[in-house]
Please model this.
Amino acid sequence: MNNELLHHLEQRINEAVEEISSLRKRISELEMQNYELSEEKSEIESTLNQTKEQQSNWESSLSQMLNRLNQMDDKQ
Model:
């Protein structure tokens, strides 16, 4: 009876050790994926900020041109 119980406990411990190993591997994979996604997010945010700045510059430039055109119209 004791040998059967010990054998059963040994099997359960081995299964738990395998599961822990598998979970550690999965955690490593997820950490790497998280790092890669974080890098990608930073690049996208940077591109978005550049695009927003460019749009703002274009809008400002267009506004200046419209103001000049209006001034020219007013003088005529």
Remarks:
- The CA atoms of residues 37 and 55 lie 26 Å apart.
- The two ends are 110 Å apart (CA to CA).
